[in-house]
Known about the structure:
The chain is an alpha/beta fold and about 250 residues long. It has one domain (about 5-245): Rossmann fold. Helices cover about 25% and strands about 30% of the residues. The strands form three sheets. The chain has a six-stranded mixed beta sheet with strand order 2-1-3-4-14-13, sandwiched between helices. Strands 6-5-7-10 form a four-stranded mixed beta sheet. Strands 9-8-11-12 form a four-stranded antiparallel beta sheet, with helices on one face.
Amino acid sequence: MLEPTLRIAALYPDQLNIYADRGNIAVLENRCRWRSIGCEVTAIGIGDQIDPGRFDLFYLGGGQDEDQRRCAADLLECKRDALVEAASNGAVVLGICGGFQLLGHWYELGDERIEGVGLLDVETVRSDGPRLIGNVAIETALAGSPARGVLAGFENHGGRTRLLDGATPLGRVLKGRGNDGVSGDEGCRSGNVIGTYLHGPLLPANCWFADWLIAAAIGSETSLAPLDDSLELAAHQAACAAAGVNA
Length: 247
């Protein structure tokens, strides 16, 4: 029987690549390789078209405001319809920080509104208040996650993201600020489309979540083969401790 292959589309890797978040792709590649699962990563840049049936997982990292403007315009011009189609067919879409904001309906910078692709029912406004910065830990309820489903990372954003009526947060804040510093919500999830502000990068400190993404993307009907995750679990415990929670 042929081994499955995880086909990843890395959107705008030259623009949306701050906070070492490209390390998330490396984690997915390695955890597939260690299990003899194929992994193909394709960089999708400005002006490139998307074949909605070609990829299992789409990844958007974070970027500076000007880079987000350019990527948002390109998303609307030549990628949104294909991305929406891919998500409706079960592809996983993961947006980190700026990528999270671009998956929502819009991001408002003063009098300027940057339109998003609308895969998540969220709206973001740049606040005049202080940036939300620091170690953060959240508790999720993702199917197949560990008992508490804790994700730990680092947040650094000036936007305040609001979930619209009926939208589901990725998790509830245990320590840190989350989407807006007030609601207790962090991130958003709609099916296999996930947005979060957790940097660090996210997946090296949360290997169970990397495995959740892989299984969801390749449609694995059985659990992934276990790995020796002693180092990864130590990293998770350290990230949780930095945020002030027990792993």
